[in-house]
Amino acid sequence: MKTSKYGIVCLDLDETLFHTKNHHIYFRPKLINFLKYLNKYFYLVVYTAATKEYADSILNKIKWTYKKKEYVAKDIFSTKLYRSCVTSNGKDLRIVLKRLLNNRLKDLNNIPKSFLVKKMKNKNVLNLDHIILVDNLVHNFLDDQFFNGIPIKDYYKNKKDNHLVIIQDFLKKYLQQIKKKPNMTLKSYLYNNLYKINNSLKIEYHKPQC
Predict the structure, then answer these.
(1) What does the alpha-carbon distance between residue 154 and residue 9 come to, in Å, rounded to a whole number?
(2) CA 123 to CA 134: how far, in whole Å?
(3) Angle at CA 137, nearest 5°, toward 131 and 76?
(4) What is the C-alpha to C-alpha distance for residues 60 and 125, in angstroms, rounded to an integer?
(5) N or C: which end of the chain has fewer CB within 10 A?
(6) pLDDT, tens digit, for every residue of 130-156?
(7) SS3 state at 53
């Protein structure tokens, strides 16, 4: 199946895309541009420790118009995973893949099967090569999924914050490179360039040895 999208991007919400305080919502700068761009080239997933009611109520407030059509952020995601899907060890992207695969079997999405499963020793196994998570909490990245994660600094109310722009540019470079190297995966790109995005975002932590 041919697709114009190049992977699956899971997004955390609180302190990643927005911050809430005293019933007021502070959206991270350039949030709408970020969502519009990602939605064009990637399948999007919400993966949050928040409740469904809370998360959906805020996503319903993020709206934009394109070619006289109104879009609501809640509707652009292939699926949304809430608090009950977060494990004691963090956010397991295998849970995301299982949900997307199950929804695909029900014709609820058109994500290529190759993005979800791959053959290993003549068996179909969940494919972590085409999926990443953007989250402000590094401990949400499981140890064996460390190179599926882009950490982002906590957002509160800084109007000069440019982290979404940096991540968007980082993913834009992936799209440019995949044209030259069609066998490159989102995970391999992140593995080879995680230090660059971390330097740009000024993230400080020690990555595990491979």
Answers:
(1) 19
(2) 29
(3) 45
(4) 35
(5) C
(6) 999 999 999 999 999 999 999 999 999
(7) helix
